[in-house]
Amino acid sequence: MTSRELWxxxxxxxxxxxxxxxxxxxxxxxxxxxxxxxLEPGQSRHEYFNAEGLPWGVPIHLGLRPGFPDETIxxxxxxxxxxxxxxxxxxxxxxxxxxxHYIDFRLKDRGGWDDYKKRLQPDPARIPGNIDETxxxxxxxxxxxxxxxxxxxxxxxxxxxxxxxGYIQYDDPELLEEMVDTLxxxxxxxxxxxxxxxxxxxxxxxxxxCGSSGPLVSPDVFNRYVVPGxxxxxxxxxxxxxxxxxxxxxxxxxxxxxxxxxxxxxxMFPVQIQxxxxxPMAFRKRYGKELRIFGGIDKLALTKDKATIDAEIERRxxxxxxxxxxxxPDHLIVPGTPLENYVYYLNRIRELRF
Length: 354
Hints:
- The chain has a 7-stranded parallel β-sheet, with helices on both faces. Strands 2-3-4-5 form a 4-stranded antiparallel β-sheet, with no helix packed on it.
- By secondary structure, it is an alpha/beta fold.
- The chain contains 13 helices and 13 strands.
């Protein structure tokens, strides 16, 4: 059974006897720690761990095109302040991983939207010239395949900042609706360009619109103005026989899951355990088998001892046996995770049989 066939059987509650062994990535500081513990610089992590990567995404550019020019405003040995490709003025620190300090935004309200909207239009240049060659390699790979469904809210939050995005939800929700329409129309156009060439297993979108205490968008506003964008994309996917639609959002997502579910999103990733207290089993009980989960393993358990890792795997076994659940640590592997522990975790997943 290929990796792709295994994914299909698990996500459709079919016949399978094991879980895929997946390595995503870790923080740069962790990579340096692991190299001190024996991992060679430049060595393929997937080869070293004998693990798969995330689903292979069809190459298509759905972001701002063209991006804004990179313009340095100030630079020292410790940081650089510059205009990012998304138009945001930000301070990035050198030599350490941390969220940038966002200083100013081009997009604050309706006045800045036209400059972004014109960069979110269909364009043949969004599709690589070697797309036919690439899709043939993808078909032959045996890996699960995905296509980007971009972002209905997360990109807007990035481009505007949390405060500006919060204001438009109440001052100008029709602008939010227009933004979502523009993004969802572009996604559907992209799917029409490539899905006649290749059958994918799922769509994959990115949001990151929740914090430790809940969403950064009102559920009422979300359901009224954003969910129709997901539904438009889900309907397009169904035209091409794609029935899995995943969204990646960190944080406490519980208040938005009903809207996502209504909009046709049926795979949640990564379902963060700490510090949000997410419960994959509670999602299964509430939404049934139509809602699948990818993630749901507490990454902090991997920093402790083997007994803690065993216990974390054990409590997810009922979902693994039932199907519609593929285990993966619930975010990047954190510094302080011993290489020995991570190898132990992957081998425990590898040994499981059902």
